[in-house]
UniProtKB/TrEMBL annotation:
Listed InterPro entries: Hydantoinase_B (IPR003692), Oxoprolinase-like (IPR045079)
One of the Pfam families matching this protein, by short name: Hydantoinase_B
GO CC aspect terms: cytosol
Signal sequence range: none
Residue intervals of the Hydantoinase B/oxoprolinase domain: 3-519
Protein name per the record: Hydantoinase B/oxoprolinase domain-containing protein
Length: 520
C-alpha cells in the first residue's frame, strides 16, 4: 500500500526536478528562441523510459519525448556519465529542429539506470535548404537539416567534440547551436544531481516505488474520467489548407470509440502522407491524443505515461498522421498537430458538448528569418511562433492573443528582437473582430509586422488561411489568418506556406486567426 501524503510529496519532488532543469536550460542557453520564448521541455522517466513527471512546458514535446528516450535506450548502451543526443523524427522525435538530450541516472553501483532525465529544445537552425530549417519547399527530410540518430554526445563525463563538430558544420549559426546543446546537457546534469539527493534522502526503493505509484494513480484518474463519457462511436474531420507544395486540402479524420473505461482513437480516413512538409510522425500524434485527454481531467493529476494506458491509438502507416521515411515533416509538428487536436476535440464535442471548447486558431504561425547581419559580421537565424485566438468555451469567451493547445511558448519581446536581429517590429497588436461570434465569442488573434533593415530569407509555415476555426453549438467560425508582404508600398497576399526573399524596407505582416464562437 502507498501513503497518499507521500504520493503527493513525491509528485511535487519529481515535478520540481523537471522545473529546475527548465530554469537551468533557460538561463544558460544562447538563442532567443530558448531563453526568451522558452521553446523547450524537460521531463523525468523511469528505467523503462516511461514518463514519471514533466515540467509545465510544451505539450507537443512532452508525451512524444518518451518515444525518444525509449529509442535511445534501445540504440545505445549507456553507462554512468554518458548522455545521448538525437533529433530523428522517425526515432521518437518530432521534427529536426527539436533536439533531445537523454541522460541515464545510475544510483551508486547499480548496473542499470534507475531513471532517465531528458529535455528537448527547438534550435533556430539545424541546416537544410532554408535558414531556420522550416522550409515549405522541402519534399523529403534530407532537405530539412542535419538528422541525428541516437549517439553519445557525452561519454564518461566528457563532451564528444567530434559529434558537436559534425552538427555545427551543417548549420548556419554554429556557435549558438553548440552552446545551446551545452545548456541542454547542463540541464540534465542538475536533474541527475537532484535525483541523487532524492535517493540518498528517501532510499532508492522508495523513490522507485512512488514513481510507479504516480503512473498508476494517473491511470486510475483517467479511467474514471473516461467512464463518465457516454459509450459510443464519435467522429470528426477537418482539413489543413494545403501541404505547401500543392493547393490540395489535407484531410485529418478521427473516430473515437468509448467503451467503459477505455478509448480507441482511430485516424483511418486521414490523407495519405503528402509531398510537402505537413506530415506528422507517430510521436506527434501520440502527443496530441495525450494532450486532449489530459485536458478532460479537472483535477491537478500528474501528467505522466499512466494517462495514456487506457487509450489505444491507430494511426495508419504512411498517412499524414504517421508518416514514414523519407517524408518532409517540419510542419507536422507545428501545424498538423494543431489540426489533430481540433478533430479529436471535435469528435468529443458530440459526446460531452458541455466540456469542449470551439476551435482555437489552429496554427502556430511559424516564421523563420535568416541572412547575414552586416553590423555584427555574422549570419543569423530567427524563429518564432505567433499566438492567435482561443476558441470560445461553453461558459465564457475565448482568450485573445494566446498560444493554445500544442504550443505553450512565450512571445519574443520586441526589445530582444530589435537588439539581436537586423529587423524591427513595426506593429504588434490584437487583431480586432477576428474571433467568431456567439453567445460566447472566440478570442482575437494577433497582428505582428516585421520591417527589414536588410535583405533576408523568410519562411512562413502557417494554416487556417483558407479554412476557418470551427464554432460549436451554432457559434460562428473564427476569422481566417493572412500573410502579407508589403514592398514599395504595395501589398501582396502570401500563401499559408511560403519562402520569400525580402529587401531593405519590406514588411511582412502576419495576421493570425481568431477562435471559433460558442452558442447562439
Amino acid at each position: 500500500m502507498f501513503n497518499p501524503i507521500s504520493l503527493e510529496i513525491f509528485n511535487n519532488l519529481f515535478s520540481a526536478i523537471c522545473e529546475e532543469m527548465g530554469v537551468v536550460l533557460c538561463k544558460s542557453s544562447f538563442s532567443t528562441n530558448i531563453k526568451e520564448r522558452r521553446d523547450f521541455s524537460c521531463a523525468l522517466f523511469d528505467g523503462r523510459g516511461e514518463m514519471v513527471a514533466q515540467a509545465e512546458h510544451l505539450p507537443v514535446h512532452l508525451a512524444s519525448m518518451s518515444l525518444s528516450v525509449k529509442e535511445a535506450i534501445k540504440a545505445v548502451e549507456m553507462r554512468d556519465g554518458d548522455t545521448v543526443i538525437l533529433n530523428d523524427p522517425f526515432q521518437g522525435g518530432t521534427h529536426l529542429p527539436d533536439i533531445t538530450i537523454v541522460t541515464p541516472f545510475f544510483y551508486k553501483a547499480m548496473k542499470k539506470p534507475v531513471f532517465y532525465v531528458a529535455n528537448r529544445a527547438h534550435h533556430s537552425d539545424v541546416g537544410g535548404m532554408s535558414p531556420g530549417s522550416m522550409s515549405n519547399n522541402a519534399t523529403e527530410i534530407y532537405q530539412e537539416g542535419v538528422r541525428i540518430p541516437p549517439v553519445k554526445i557525452v561519454q564518461a563525463g566528457i563532451i564528444n567534440k567530434d559529434v558537436i563538430s559534425i552538427i555545427t558544420a551543417n548549420v548556419r549559426t554554429p556557435e549558438e547551436r553548440e552552446w545551446d546543446i551545452v545548456a541542454q546537457i547542463s540541464a540534465n546534469t542538475i536533474g541527475k544531481q537532484r535525483l541523487l539527493e532524492l535517493c540518498d534522502k528517501y532510499g532508492k526503493n522508495e523513490v522507485i516505488k512512488y514513481s510507479a505509484e504516480l503512473q498508476d494513480y494517473s491511470d486510475r484518474i483517467m479511467r474514471s474520467v473516461i467512464r463518465k463519457i457516454p459509450d459510443g462511436k464519435y467522429s470528426f474531420s477537418d482539413f489543413l489548407d494545403d501541404d505547401g507544395i500543392t493547393g490540395t486540402p489535407v484531410r485529418i479524420k478521427v473516430g473515437i470509440n468509448i467503451k467503459g473505461s477505455r478509448v480507441h482513437v482511430d485516424f483511418s480516413g486521414s490523407s495519405k502522407q503528402v509531398k510537402g512538409c505537413v506530415n506528422a510522425v507517430y510521436a506527434v500524434t501520440v502527443s496530441c491524443v495525450f494532450y486532449v485527454f489530459r485536458c478532460l481531467i479537472n483535477s491537478d493529476v500528474p501528467a505522466n505515461s499512466g494517462c495514456l494506458r487506457a487509450v489505444s491509438i491507430n494511426a495508419p502507416d504512411g498517412s499524414v498522421v504517421n508518416a514514414t521515411m523519407p517524408s518532409a515533416v517540419s510542419s507536422g509538428n507545428v501545424e498538423t498537430s494543431q489540426r489533430i487536436v481540433d478533430v479529436v476535440f471535435g469528435a468529443l464535442s458530440k459526446a460531452i458538448p458541455s466540456k469542449i471548447p470551439a476551435a482555437s486558431s489552429g496554427t502556430m504561425n511559424n516564421i523563420a528569418i535568416g541572412g547575414y547581419d552586416k553590423s555584427r559580421g555574422q549570419s543569423f537565424t530567427y524563429y518564432e511562433t505567433i499566438a492567435g485566438g482561443m476558441g470560445a468555451r461553453p461558459d465564457r469567451n475565448g482568450l485573445d492573443a494566446i498560444h493554445t493547445h500544442m504550443t505553450n511558448t512565450l512571445n519574443t519581446p520586441v526589445e530582444a528582437i530589435e537588439h539581436n536581429y537586423p529587423f524591427r517590429i513595426k506593429r504588434y497588436q490584437v487583431r480586432p473582430q477576428s474571433g467568431g461570434m456567439g453567445k460566447f465569442r472566440g478570442g482575437y488573434g494577433i497582428i505582428r509586422d516585421f520591417e527589414f533593415l536588410d535583405t533576408a530569407s523568410v519562411s512562413i509555415l502557417s494554416d487556417r488561411r483558407k479554412s476557418s476555426p470551427y464554432g460549436l453549438r451554432s457559434g460562428k467560425k473564427g476569422r481566417v489568418g493572412k500573410n502579407i508582404l508589403i514592398s514599395k508600398g504595395k501589398k501582396h497576399n502570401l500563401p499559408s506556406k511560403t519562402t520569400v526573399n525580402v529587401k531593405k524596407g519590406d514588411v511582412i505582416s502576419i495576421c493570425t486567426p481568431g477562435g471559433g464562437g460558442y452558442g447562439r
